[in-house]
């Protein structure tokens, strides 16, 4: 019997597998996807949000614990477990040397429109390079890796993990029999339910016309995160936390693929213009805060609009102040022409833009600061970077909600143990998206998902190794 079974194949699962192996346990990692799609949502990531008290290698200036905490507190609206959040924050300050030891490389500090040179460490080659490095290290250390192995059931007895069940399946025309894999301990890190369309329908419900808003959602990440193990554990009585409609949900290019569009589908000009819905009306403050602190609320905002679509509108003054999208948007020499191209009601759209333009107050525009360019007498107000949209050519980008991962999670503690009736399991642990809702009740700030996955992946893996040896799990705090 193996010591530690890790279920999942992304950042959190790999961190758990590596930590368990380093602690002396025999480890098997089983991934639902084929090898070419391994890595879950982590393959689409770019960076890790890191606490640091002074300049460190690829991080400039300082980003102390309290500032990180306040940033997280603000975006979650207080819907977070402070003890676990601060654990993640402190762990983020010490993980980079360990990551480098396992082959992860970081690129020099970034500056400019992303506003994250101080707070986030970027992976050289992005998330795909990170997961590939971890897989190489895991193989070198002797971790057994299985692909095309979706777990459909978990056997638990009195709160203890017993076995994982893989169903009969066909791979490249070959039939593989069902399997039952026993282990002394287990880490669940198999992601949320964002690619389970039926569960999304159930969570979001339907409208008065019988339509399901979630049918218009696009999935930025992996198609393999069906939430099978999350639902299994909930059915087994594991304690859970979070709202099933809360998620990392970004406004992305409406032309994006249904799955695996990743980072390149983002439209980053929202804060520099206005966003209107299908009726040609604004519905939220586009300049509320820096884009890395607000980009992940816009998917949910658009999900609440008619037909779940929005349109980011800018003029030529905004060009050069944001990361350009992969594909060009609509371009027009007049707002009338742009309205027609986007199939928006011309009269309402022009009135919206005219009211906004009239409400813009003179200020000193600076997209790198929370500047004093604001609106007056306009609802909703725009509180930063408000400039009249009056300089052709004009640009419009159609936006859809892009779900990265869901926040409904298994409840845990500082040991990463799964809990049943508030009692921690002795040998069953959780990491990554399956527990992120303990820290992220709502909202998001760039890079914190990787911080959570790295922190709790390492904690879960280490404690799973201890549990397999009959030792007591430890808190990282």
TrEMBL record:
Q: Which Pfam families match?
A: FAD_binding_2
Write out the GO MF terms: oxidoreductase activity
Cofactors, names only: FAD
Q: Which InterPro entries match?
A: CobZ, FAD-dep_OxRdtase_2_FAD-bd, FAD-oxidoreductase_2, FAD/NAD-bd_sf, Succ_DH/fumarate_Rdtase_cat_sf
Keywords recorded for this protein, A-Z:
FAD, Flavoprotein, Oxidoreductase
Q: Entry's NCBIfam families?
A: CobZ_N-term, PRK08274.1
Q: What is this protein called?
A: FAD-dependent tricarballylate dehydrogenase TcuA
